[in-house]
From TrEMBL:
<dbReference type="InterPro" id="IPR011065">
    <property type="entry name" value="Kunitz_inhibitor_STI-like_sf"/>
</dbReference>
<protein>
    <submittedName>
        <fullName>Uncharacterized protein</fullName>
    </submittedName>
</protein>
<dbReference type="GO" id="GO:0004866">
    <property type="term" value="F:endopeptidase inhibitor activity"/>
</dbReference>
<keyword id="KW-0732">Signal</keyword>
<dbReference type="Pfam" id="PF00197">
    <property type="entry name" value="Kunitz_legume"/>
</dbReference>
<feature type="signal peptide">
    <location>
        <begin position="1"/>
        <end position="17"/>
    </location>
</feature>
<dbReference type="InterPro" id="IPR002160">
    <property type="entry name" value="Prot_inh_Kunz-lg"/>
</dbReference>
């Protein structure tokens, strides 16, 4: 009996010692402006945290040069425009959306996209031959084209005023290379490039000046609260 008990205890100890510790290697949950965990089943407005008439505005879809179907992901200029709400969809279908993990960003309730038979997923487009940039557009892509990450960033790296000096300040990141089933290498920030008066989201190249990401915060679309920045 003693031998059997010792053997059982030994197996239990070994199992506990070798069992992965849940959450030990997991990233922190992404938080909205109210400090609540971002949920993949809810919708959010992604809004620039830079304060100003020209720099503060939500993320939206633009019809681009064709003037009919939304093709481009843009930042609205007026600071009181919230943009279009979207969902954040983790690669592992988790309800909790975490920092620095692969997610898909998908606009919701865009009727014009349905009319154009176009998916509302964000994707990184191929190099623009004339401008030499990789813009964020809308549609189904291949492998890593549709995957992005949100990473926490400090307000101190920006020269301009940050509307919300709070812990839940993020930048958008795109990693272009698939390794071991995950898009985790050759990562670059997503910023804004003014093209013909439109603030288009673009992958920031190391040679771009200024080489800064777009700082964003998340407002829950279904909170019922007014989307207001505090006075500075």
């Amino acid at each position: 009996m003693k031998t059997s008990l010792v053997t059982t205890l030994s197996f239990l100890i070994l199992a506990l010692a070798t069992k992965p510790q849940l959450g030990a290697s997991e990233s922190e949950p992404i938080l909205d402006v109210y400090g609540n965990q971002v949920d993949s089943s809810h919708r959010y407005y992604l809004v620039s945290a830079l304060w100003g008439v020209k720099t503060g505005g939500g993320i939206s879809a633009d019809k681009g040069k064709n003037g009919q179907c939304p093709t481009d992901v843009i930042q609205l200029s007026p600071k009181d425009k919230r943009g279009k709400n979207l969902g954040l969809l983790p690669y592992d279908n988790s309800t909790i959306v975490r920092e620095s993990t692969n997610i898909k960003l998908k606009f919701s309730r865009v009727s014009s996209l349905q009319q154009c038979n176009k998916d509302s997923l964000w994707k990184v487009d191929n190099d623009n031959a004339s401008l030499g940039k990789q813009f964020i557009t809308i549609g189904e892509g291949k492998t890593c084209q549709n995957f992005f990450k949100l990473e926490k960033v400090s307000a101190s790296i920006f020269d301009m005023k940050i509307a919300l000096d709070i812990p839940c300040l993020y930048k958008i990141v795109h990693c272009s290379t698939l390794v071991n089933g995950s898009c985790d290498t050759l990562c670059k920030d997503v910023g804004v490039s003014n093209v013909d008066g439109v603030q288009r989201l673009v992958v920031v190249d190391d040679n771009d000046q200024p080489n800064l990401p777009l700082p964003v915060v998340l407002f829950p679309a279904d909170s019922g609260r007014s989307m207001l920045f505090p006075s500075l």
